[in-house]
């Protein structure tokens, strides 16, 4: 069974088709980078998958169910594009923020017991942010905030992690460190990952598949396939396709040297 | 000063005021963080309309205010959620409609009489035992509902989109929040009055937020600020012969200044 499945999905707003006939599926353990320019429908695609928007045509399945009927949200960890954590006055400590991730399996009145607190502590430790548990999320650096948001998404041991431009507000080094963390989660804990990004050349270093959309599907496959894809050549032009693949090879080699 | 405690009107004022202040201060934290704080102001103006209506028909304003203000709060939420108008615009429309309707009804019933003025500026020192009992009962109900939905309210205030992906029905949580607010505004009108009720919701929460505490501690601090404001304000009103509602708000503002100063000193 596919973890995620889109079949001929359309989504329209203000008379414009933002998602136009999108079809793809993601298998268990895949790491898929969703790439495209501003306004290409990446975030809309993610929001449709998570039931935050309803498609106007086609079929969306999350773990085999339509998102509006999906109940087991413990299986899904999500980091949205914008989190209120930027508000430094919001009175939520990193520990409290991470514990919110445990709410998905509980019914009202929801309580946080000793086992829950232990789970939060273990997750903070796993992400190497134990020391900031009592700090307000808004007072942390961008990199630390993203780790807290990741900890919130991971605390329930999800099977699918959905991240919408998680490194957009980070500097290059913090962004690299964060992406390596996601790759390790995918490789070691076998978490299926869907990651939205602008960076077409860099995503190939981490993701095993790439979905390029421009409101319509442009390409879906491995980065190797992208470099020889006639569809990608037609969309980008052969020269641009070559440059993207060359930059990817260059960044991959640089990453390997740094890791050696 | 302590001899004031022998008077039944002071006892009633302290009891009702303590419960309502804690209630307002707790709800206020969620409203301020969700940037809904002006909803209290808008609903208080609708309360003015419903009180004028109650006085016109010579029934207890409370019975008319609760359904009218609750319906208005849901109306504001619906307008905001559907994205048809901005949140502050929706509050502004409902608020001015409430004032205009209240003024028309007041003029039809012979102008602004003493009763209406007491609701406008509060008259905590004249409340009756049955109103005290009602305040305590409704405060207990609202606090119980806040406890029941506590984690959902926190999650929705922090990041509504992620809260939805956690399976939290944020639409229901928002409805609960505005309904509790409408009930609180109606309850508070006898204490601080319609004109000052929003300050009761906003200032203790804003003071607590200056301290840079965790969420749970912020709620406690806000309740503490509200409680101290009411108790000190009532004694100040007794000692200096000042209007109680206004004295409470002035104490609340002084506590805000202290919290603001403390934040600067602590460098938070």
Q: What's the arrangement of secondary structure elements?
A:
The complex is a heterodimer of chains A (260) and B (268).
Chain A: E1 4-13, E2 16-26, E3 31-35, H1 42-49, E4 57-62, E5 76-79, H2 94-100, H3 114-126, H4 142-154, E6 160-164, H5 172-188, E7 192-197, H6 200-203, E8 209-214, E9 216-221, H7 223-227, H8 230-236, H9 238-259
Parallel strand pairs in A: 3-7, 3-8, 5-6, 6-7
Antiparallel strand pairs in A: 1-2, 1-4, 8-9
Helix pairs in contact in A: 2-4, 8-9
Chain B: H1 8-33, H2 38-56, H3 61-81, H4 87-108, H5 114-121, H6 129-148, H7 150-158, H8 160-165, H9 170-188, H10 197-209, H11 215-240, H12 244-266
Helix pairs in contact in B: 1-6, 1-9, 1-10, 1-11, 2-3, 2-4, 2-5, 2-9, 2-10, 3-4, 3-9, 6-9, 10-11, 10-12, 11-12
| CATH hierarchy: architecture of chain A | 3-Layer(aba) Sandwich
Structural category of chain A: alpha/beta
The proportion of residues in beta strands of chain B is under 5%
Q: What number of structural domains do the residues of chain A give? A: 1
Second CATH tier, the architecture of chain B = Orthogonal Bundle
- The pLDDT mean of chain B sits at 88
Q: Compute the number of structural domains of chain B.
A: 1
CATH fold description of chain B: ABC transporter involved in vitamin B12 uptake, BtuC
CA(first)-CA(last) distance of chain B: 37 Å
CATH topology group of chain A: Rossmann fold
**Shape, per Cα inertia axes of chain A:** globular
* Computed Rg of chain B: 18 Å
CATH class of chain A: Alpha Beta
| Terminus-to-terminus distance of chain A | 38 Å
Say how many strands of chain A there are: 9
Radius of gyration of chain A: 19 Å
What is the assigned CATH homologous superfamily of chain A? P-loop containing nucleotide triphosphate hydrolases
Alpha-beta content class of chain B: mainly alpha
Q: What's the average pLDDT of chain A?
A: 88
């Amino acid at each position: 069974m596919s973890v995620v499945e889109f079949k001929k999905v359309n989504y329209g707003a203000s008379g414009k088709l933002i998602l136009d006939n999108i079809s793809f599926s993601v298998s268990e353990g895949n790491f898929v980078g969703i790439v495209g320019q501003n306004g290409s429908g990446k975030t809309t695609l993610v929001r449709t998958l998570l039931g935050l928007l309803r498609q106007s045509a086609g079929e969306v399945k999350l773990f085999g169910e339509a998102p509006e009927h999906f109940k087991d949200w413990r299986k899904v960890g999500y980091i949205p594009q914008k989190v209120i954590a930027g508000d430094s006055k919001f009175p939520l400590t990193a520990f409290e923020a991470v514990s919110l991730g445990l709410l998905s399996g509980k019914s009202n009145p929801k309580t946080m017991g000793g086992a829950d607190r232990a789970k939060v502590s273990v997750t903070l430790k796993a992400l190497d942010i134990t020391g900031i548990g009592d700090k307000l999320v808004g007072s942390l650096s961008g990199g630390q905030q993203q780790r807290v948001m990741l900890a919130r998404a991971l605390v329930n041991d999800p099977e699918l992690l959905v991240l919408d431009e998680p490194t957009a507000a980070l500097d290059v080094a913090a962004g690299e460190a964060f992406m390596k963390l996601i790759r390790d989660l995918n490789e070691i804990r076998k978490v299926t990952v869907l990651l939205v990004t602008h960076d077409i050349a860099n995503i190939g270093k981490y993701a095993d598949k790439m979905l390029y959309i421009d409101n319509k599907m442009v390409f879906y496959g491995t980065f190797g396939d992208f470099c020889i894809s006639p569809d990608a050549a037609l969309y980008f032009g052969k020269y641009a396709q070559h440059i993207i693949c060359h930059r990817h090879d260059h960044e991959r080699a640089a990453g390997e040297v740094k890791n050696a | 000063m302590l001899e004031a405690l022998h008077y039944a009107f002071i006892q009633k004022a302290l009891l009702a005021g303590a419960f309502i202040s804690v209630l307002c201060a707790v709800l206020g934290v969620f409203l301020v963080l969700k940037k809904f704080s002006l909803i209290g102001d808008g609903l208080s103006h609708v309360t003015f309309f419903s009180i004028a209506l109650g006085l016109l028909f010579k029934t207890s304003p409370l019975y008319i205010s609760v359904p009218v203000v609750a319906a208005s709060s849901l109306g504001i939420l619906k307008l905001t959620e559907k994205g048809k108008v901005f949140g502050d615009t929706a509050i502004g429309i409902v608020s001015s409609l409430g004032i205009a309707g209240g003024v028309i009804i007041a003029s039809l019933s012979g102008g602004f009489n003493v009763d209406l003025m007491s609701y406008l500026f509060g008259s905590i020192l004249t409340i009756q035992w049955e109103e005290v009992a009602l305040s305590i009962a409704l405060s207990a109900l609202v606090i119980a509902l806040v406890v029941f939905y506590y984690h959902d309210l926190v999650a929705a205030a922090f990041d509504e989109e992620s809260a939805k992906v956690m399976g939290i029905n944020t639409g229901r949580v928002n409805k609960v929040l505005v309904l509790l607010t409408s009930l609180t505004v109606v309850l508070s009108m006898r204490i601080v009055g319609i004109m000052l009720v929003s300050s009761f919701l906003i200032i203790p929460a804003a003071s607590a937020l200056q301290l840079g505490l965790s969420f749970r501690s912020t709620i406690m601090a806000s309740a503490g600020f509200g409680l101290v404001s009411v108790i000190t304000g009532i004694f100040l009103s007794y000692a200096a012969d000042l209007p109680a509602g206004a004295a409470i708000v002035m104490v609340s503002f002084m506590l805000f200044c202290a919290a603001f100063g403390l934040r600067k000193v602590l460098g938070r």
